[in-house]
Amino acid sequence: MKVALSVQNENKQSMVDERFGRCPYFAIAETETGEITFVTNEAANDNGAGVKAARILLKQKVEAVIVGNIGPKAFEVLNRAGLTIYGGLTGSIQESLELLKQGKLSQLTTPNN
Q: In 10 A of CB 92, how many CB atoms?
């Protein structure tokens, strides 16, 4: 599964960023292979950052997103596109992916910000 996480830096040891639309980068992780790539969040400083960030991830063809906080408009864009949105983003990229693997993240059915 291809999963996106909002992160602070462009490296595999990066800590996550609780902000969805305003994070500086997204880590795109392929859970089956462990491969991680990074995408700059070019919308981080824009008006409507959440919606623009959601569109960036749709172009990356991710299937799920792990978030700390996500607003209603970004949530709607991702939800309408059929992505699974998990809450519980915490710690590092690896820690959040491990929680996903263990089934310890909850699927969000509404925005949490």
A: 17
- CA dist 9 and 40 (Å) reads 10
- Residue 33 makes CB contacts below 8 A (sequence gap 6+) with none
- Looking at residue 108, what DSSP letter applies? P
**What is the spatial distance between Cα 9 and Cα 98, in angstroms, rounded to a whole number?**
19
CA 8 vs. chain centroid, Å, equals 12
pTM of the model: 0.94
- Report the percentage of the chain scoring pLDDT > 70: 100
Which pLDDT score is estimated for 113? 82
The tokens for 100 are 């996903």
Domains of the chain, start order:
2-107 (3.30.420.130)
